[in-house]
Amino acid sequence: MRRKTMLLPALFCACLAGSAAAQGFDKAGKPVIRPEYKPRGDIYRNGWIDFNKNGKKDIFEDPTQPVDRRVEDLLSQMNLDEKTAQMATLYGYGRVLTDDLPKPEWKTDRIWKDGIGAIDEHLNGYPPGRRNRSNPYVWPASNHAWAINEVQRFFVEETRLGIPVDFTNEGLRGVESFKATNFPTQLGVGHTWNRELVYRMGEIEGREARALGYTNVYAPILDVGRDQRWGRYEEVYGESPYLVAELGIQLVRGIQSQGVAATAKHFVGYSNGKGAREGMARNNPQMSRREMEQIHVYPFGRVIREAGLLGIMSSYNDFDGEPVQGSRYWLTEVLRGRYGFRGYVVSDSDAVEYLYSKHFTAADMKEAVRQAVEAGLNVRCTFRSPDSFIVPLRELVREGALSEETVDDRVRDILRVKFLCGLFDNPYKNDLRAADAEVCSEENEEVARQMSLESIVLLKNEANTLPICRDSVRRIAVIGPNARATDFVTARYGPNAVEPVSVLEGIRAAVPEGVEVAYAKGCELVDDNWPDSELMDYPLTQAERDSIDVAYKAAAEADVVVMVLGGGTRTCGENKSRSSLDLPGRQQQLLEAITPLKAQGKRVILVLINGRPLSINWADRYVPAIVEAWYPGRHGGTAVAEVLFGDYNPGGKLTVTFPRSVGQIPFNFPTLPSAQSDSWGANGPRSHRARVNGALYPFGFGLSYTTFAYSDLQLSETVITPYRGLTVSCTVTNTGERAGDEVVQLYLHDRLSSVMAYEKVLRGFERVHLKPGESRIVEFELHPRDLEILDKDYNWTVEPGDFTVMIGASSEDIRLRRDFTVVEAGRLREMRATERKGALAAKVSASVADERAIYTVDGDPQTAWEGTKNQYITYELRSGAKPSEIGIAWAEGEPVEFEIQLSSGGGLFIPVWRGKSRMNNGETERYRFDGATSSDLRILILSDRGRICEVELAEL
After folding, report:
1. One of 227, 348, 413, 750 is an active-site residue; which one?
2. How far, in Å, are 717, 784, 943 from residue 723 at the CA level?
3. Over the stretch 30-84, which tens digit does the pLDDT of each residue have?
4. Is 348 a catalytic site residue?
5. 747 and which of 227, 505, 644, 806 could share a cystine (Cβ 3.0–4.6 Å)?
């Protein structure tokens, strides 16, 4: 035995050296990469690989066999040690693994001698530093692919069954490699509203991942943004679960089209923890089961069903006291039972450990492992040795505390993904030089540049401050802590060694010769007392005053001042939730010092670089032009400059809500009826209003350098059954003088339902490019799923009733609307018309002669309601209505003095119009007033007598 133990490492080294020699090393020991990787050995046959080295083609080794047969054949040959080894991730070089290439002890002294499920972030250059930058296997791409092949070859050739490893890596803004094509952060990607572009991004991530040797990308994030304070807000597509699902489907399809698995995160409810707290919090989501299902579960369900998602990362948090990581309901009944998920579930870092260390639902690690595996976890992934999971897992089975059948079920899913990704057909990247040509190719970079452009949102453009005319400018001052900042480009979960362009560099490259571009930082991103300085004022230091003075001088000498403010890696990101949404540090003081220069004819422009919406109320009131760029990726500075100078017309729209104050939170889209309304009225001591109302910028908002008109709303059907959809179309026309993009948005409202429905939900969007004067018909398909509501019994169903389709430029800028009706199968349209009339009657009431109130909306001018002094008639408005006009047909007689009143609930009505009728001949008179979001409108008679024949009220 002693002799064998001594010889085994030597034999292993000889085996490794033999294959490596096929590639070659130089005198310094660095690999000499040849164009192709061709491993040698008897196991590599014509069209198949003898993974278990038994000299025959087993079912699992036969590429022509169905996947499920291959899975079962391989599973039947695995022992317990091999099965449990598949259920853990080994973190790569520089994280847990200390070796960049296989070492002799892998065969004898490491738990992965029996195989391993996945290796995460291996040789991806993270964390950045000399150790990774100088490693020849990190870069170039061909070297990296060769090294990954060598690690894979160990598992194929040196383990009993030769099961390949799933090489996983992050990919939220491009593959997290030393270098790869760098995209805007996911929040910026969401603001493009461009499905095709997101699909192309997915294709690029998939191709580059495969070229580098990775087979599974941890993307997209399907969390839905709900609390703008949350540190990881930069990583969501937006607030609408529909938009998150639509873009998530495209990214997953793009990645998986390249034979690479996509793993979506974080299932489920992760983005709505109490107070948006992170760190050791990240739990106790503040929402009902209905909101959990309709907002947070919805995107995962659709992406699984419509894109064939192969990976899910389970989240840290609980829901209603039950940790998701230990919940059979969420990980098995919902994921697999309801949605048919066929991939594998991987834990988010210490989610398993938290069962005993934070949630206290398990007594120790072994019990946590049992709970997680029985709940549905397939692979534990964290920054710890895989032994800490595999050893207790084996003990549980051998002690009878966990059935081996349960382990078999979990391993089936892991193997299925590996077969679907082709790892058992070809586990290697053969064309190594192709990796150098693929990663960061010009074609890929052009897609990333377009993504940066389309992510930018124009929030304000008073008096056409933008675009800047190059011919009229001699000096531009670029001011602010984000003018030269690029740290956000290479932040976590993306490429970490790309060469970003700052806003300052982008502007300097964009101006013609003879235009001077001056720079002053003005202040740091945050001050020395931040974040405590969000709670109280600290006097500016002398150094801070001097820095602002220098910036003011630079601005005063310029024709145009571009302020580049916002956030950065210090203020936003994982574990960077905030207690305020104001500009951090001394940025507000800097902004207030510079902006008054507009009175001297200076063009003052604010560019925001940040990862969450900010409450920029002062800027919105006083700064002439505001551009929101989010974290715009490597090409961000170039993209911002193109927007500022009019080379590109911004067309991004907000996928998030900008609250006016952190005190309004939660404030988001979609919302239940009147949930975000409040008392209204004037400022000052005589008013009853005690807080600010409304969004600073609503969901869907965004300006352009041109204008668009909407017309001709058409529905293919006006009455449908619950099992049919319909086509909605409208015409959009560019009525301005510049070509531009418009994001046409379709919203839907269920007017009467068994449970409260959202005021409006996004159910369609298209980004269209139009030349000046060009018109285009935009079509949307509404499917039965788009009409569904989660009923009282928590079943998704289409309830018969009336729906309103709304087409607009934002959630609050609705240009067109039309109703349609859903009837039960077999019911006559005429019967439904009668029901609609009855429903309308229920929305009208009066203080006297209530039974006659319906006469004012029955379409018959010969019928009327009559009231005397101080009597009134009240109309219940549709959810979210903001009336500003009403038509009233008064019966013949003397002019009637009356008052129009609005209420936002609670029985309090506020007068908005007072006067006398004019014609009193049965013809409709129109009255306009300042509108507000209201639940009811009332007409109060002030004369001795008044008779109303008909009322025309669009919001009824």
Report:
1. 348
2. 13, 6, 52
3. 666 677 888 889 999 999 999 999 999 999 999 999 999 999 999 999 999 999 9
4. yes
5. 806
